[in-house]
C-alpha cells in the first residue's frame, strides 16, 4: 500500500513538471527612438545648441569673405570716382561715391562715436548669441556671418576714417554699400530660419502630440 502511494506522488510530480507554463509574460512597452523616460522623442529631446568647431569655422569664413568683398569694392570706388561723382549703370541704379558718418542708409549721421559704440555692442551680442545657439539652425552660421561681416566692415571704416563709403544708389533710396546689403540679407535669413522655422516646429510638434494621444 505504501509503495503504491509513493508511486502516485512521484507520478503527480512528474506530470506537473512536464506541463508547459501557462503564465503569460508581462508585456514591456519599449519605445525606440525616445528619451530615457520613453515619453519624449529623441528629435525633440533637449540637446546642446552651443556652436561647435564647424559652426565657428563657417561663421568666420562667411564674415571674412563679406569684409573682404566690402573693403575691396570701397577701395575701387574711392580710387576711380571722386567724392560726389556718379556713373549710371541701368535705369535708376548708379554708382555714386558718397560718404556716410551714420549707420546703414545714412541714418544717425554725424554721430560717429555713438554709432561705433552701438555697433561694437551689437557685434559682441551676436557673438554671444552664436556661442550659445550656433546649432539651432543649419543656416545660422551663414546668416550671422553675413551680419557680422557687414557690421565689422563698416566698423573698420568708421574707426579708421570716421565715415563709411557708400556707392550703390537707387535714387529713391539713400546710397548704401555691400556691407549694408550683407546685413539686410543676413537679418532676413535669420528671421526666416528662426522665427518661421520655430513656428513650423511648434505646429508639427502639436500635431504629433495630438496623434500620439489619439493612438492611446
Architecture overview:
This protein has 216 residues and is mainly alpha-helical. Helices cover 59% and strands 9% of the residues. It contains five helices and three strands, in the order H-H-E-E-H-H-E-H. The protein has helices at 2-18, 53-80, 112-133, 140-161, 178-215; strands at 86-90, 93-100, 164-169. It has a three-stranded antiparallel β-sheet. Strand 1 (86-90) and strand 2 (93-100) form a beta hairpin. Helix 2 (53-80) packs across helix 4 (140-161) and helix 4 runs antiparallel to helix 5. The protein is elongated and about 55 Å long. The two termini are 62 Å apart.
Compact description:
With 216 residues, the chain is mainly alpha-helical. The chain has five helices and three strands.
Number of domains: 1
Summarize the helix and strand pattern as letters: HHEEHHEH
Helix residue percentage: 55-70%
Low-confidence stretches: 30-34
Query: What does the average pLDDT come to?
Result: 78
Helical run tally: 5
Q: How far apart lie the N and C ends?
A: 62 Å
Strands side by side in the biggest sheet: 1-2-3
Radius of gyration over C-alpha positions, nearest whole angstrom: 34 Å
Structural class: mainly alpha
**What global shape is seen?**
elongated
Main pleated-sheet profile: 3 strands, antiparallel
**Strand segment tally:** 3
> Which percent range describes the beta-strand content?
5-15%
Oligomeric description of these chains: single chain
Amino acid at each position: 500500500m505504501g509503495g503504491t502511494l509513493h508511486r502516485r506522488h512521484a507520478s503527480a510530480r512528474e506530470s506537473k513538471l512536464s506541463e508547459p507554463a501557462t503564465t503569460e509574460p508581462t508585456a514591456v512597452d519599449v519605445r525606440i527612438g525616445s528619451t530615457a523616460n520613453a515619453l519624449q522623442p529623441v528629435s525633440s529631446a533637449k540637446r546642446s545648441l552651443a556652436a561647435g568647431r564647424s559652426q565657428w569655422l563657417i561663421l568666420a569664413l562667411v564674415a571674412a569673405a563679406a569684409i573682404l568683398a566690402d573693403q575691396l569694392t570701397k577701395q575701387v570706388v574711392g580710387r576711380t570716382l571722386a567724392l560726389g561723382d556718379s556713373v549710371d549703370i541701368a535705369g535708376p541704379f548708379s554708382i555714386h561715391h558718397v560718404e556716410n558718418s551714420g549707420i546703414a542708409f545714412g541714418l544717425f549721421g554725424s554721430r560717429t562715436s555713438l554709432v561705433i559704440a552701438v555697433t561694437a555692442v551689437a557685434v559682441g551680442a551676436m557673438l554671444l548669441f552664436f556661442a550659445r545657439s550656433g546649432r539651432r539652425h543649419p543656416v545660422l552660421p551663414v546668416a550671422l556671418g553675413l551680419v557680422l561681416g557687414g557690421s565689422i566692415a563698416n566698423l573698420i571704416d568708421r574707426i579708421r576714417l570716421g565715415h563709411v563709403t557708400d556707392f550703390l544708389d537707387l535714387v529713391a533710396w539713400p546710397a548704401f554699400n555691400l556691407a549694408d546689403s550683407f546685413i539686410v540679407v543676413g537679418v532676413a535669413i535669420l528671421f526666416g530660419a528662426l522665427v518661421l522655422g520655430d513656428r513650423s516646429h511648434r505646429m508639427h510638434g502639436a500635431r504629433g502630440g495630438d496623434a500620439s494621444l489619439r493612438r492611446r
